[in-house]
Amino acid sequence: MSKNEQNKGRKRAITVLLVLLILLCLGGAGYLVYTNFLAPQEDAGATVSKYDGMTREEIQAELDRQARESRMTISVNAKPQLKDGRVRVNVINDKSNKFDQSFTLEQDGKTLYESGIVKRGKAVEWVDAADAKTGEATVTVTARDRKTGKKHGNPQAVQVEIVKAE
Amino acid sequence: MSIKNKLAAVACGLALVGTVAAPVAALAAQDESGNVTGQTTGTTNVTVQTDPSGTQLSFTVPTIIPFYVANGGTMITASGTNLKIVNNSVFPIHVSKVKVAAVNPFTVTSTDTTENGFDFTLDGVKASDALGEDGVDYTPTTLGYAGSAQASHPVAVKNGKINKVTEDISSAKNAATITWTLASGKAQ
């Protein structure tokens, strides 16, 4: 190969490396921007309330309304079966709910499984939980805003008893 | 009669069991069966089936407990009927524990000199007694099977009092999380 061709080859390699480096930097910057500014932030459950000028009865009605409209149904298998490293939690997001949900499965202080978004009317039956064993565990369900995916209010949870599948 | 003095509401989040939900992850991942694995934001579509074993534990509960702060620091909340826990299961369930955690800059305390400090009772259990990782045993509360006369439990949230409010609470602020633990069976 002539010197000219070698130089061309070297320049091409350097160009490719530079492009890759730039792409990596852009990807990293994009990730930082997403996680710090664009990713859904947790909704602390605050309710907007201006009660100036309202009577006591009106305030009570507003408080009752807020509580009523925040209601959510949790549905979990109280005796999840364990089989081949999988657990049948059967978490159901009731179709009557106003929120999407996500959930975790924990045992002995350790998180065995974390779900994605479970849409309203949908369910997750079996989950992979290689470290699960028979005995007490906790399934924690979090409401998620259907548009933004932000956490809504606070987690709801159930104490369950993992049993061996027959 | 209009209430002329400045009013504000403090919202309390409600949670059941003392664990914190997982953070939102970025990308979806599924195993061969289509079940979601690991940290994902994917959606899993699984056909819902009736559970023949009758072990599905289901209940309905408010996710927000809103408080209104009146003159003198008295806190008023929604009525028990609107704060009720309703059992949808075919077997009785019970509330076994409660845990309360304050949300900065508020403090849950029985001391009446702490700025932005407040306290209240849940079915007779003082919120300030329920701080700490494990919470405390709850007042024995059994909810009968779905459709029974005892399937619904109105939660009595009372004795709310907040001290020296220095935060701007003209719009509701989250002040605490309340975590109940529910389990199958009757309360012992």
Topology at a glance:
The complex is a heterodimer of chains A (166) and B (188).
Chain A: H1 3-38, H2 56-69, E1 71-77, E2 81-83, E3 86-92, E4 100-107, E5 110-114, E6 123-128, E7 135-144, E8 151-164
Parallel strand pairs in A: 2-8
Antiparallel strand pairs in A: 2-3, 3-6, 4-5, 4-7, 7-8
Chain B: E1 8-15, E2 56-62, E3 64-69, E4 74-77, E5 85-87, E6 93-102, E7 107-108, E8 117-122, E9 125-126, E10 136-143, E11 152-153, E12 157-162, E13 173-184
Give a verbal description of the structure.
The complex is a heterodimer of chains A (166) and B (188). Chain A is α+β, with helices and mostly antiparallel strands and 166 residues long. Helices cover 30% and strands 36% of the residues of chain A. Chain A has helices spanning 3-38, 56-69, and strands at 71-77, 81-83, 86-92, 100-107, 110-114, 123-128, 135-144, 151-164. Chain A has a 7-stranded mixed β-sheet with strand order 5-4-7-8-2-3-6, with no helix packed on it. In chain A, a hairpin with a 2-residue loop joins β4 (100-107) and β5 (110-114). The N and C termini of chain A lie far apart (70 Å). Chain B is mostly beta strands and 188 residues long. Helices cover 0% and strands 40% of the residues of chain B. Chain B contains no helices and 13 strands. Chain B has strands at residues 8-15, 56-62, 64-69, 74-77, 85-87, 93-102, 107-108, 117-122, 125-126, 136-143, 152-153, 157-162, 173-184. In chain B, the strands form 2 sheets. In chain B, strands 1, 3, 4, 6, 7, 8, 9, 10, 12 and 13 form a 10-stranded mixed β-sheet that branches. In chain B, β8 (117-122) and β9 form a beta hairpin. Chain B is elongated and about 55 Å long. The relative contact order of chain B is 0.27. Mean pLDDT of chain B is 76; it is low at 1-36. β1 (71-77) of chain A pairs antiparallel with β2 of chain B.
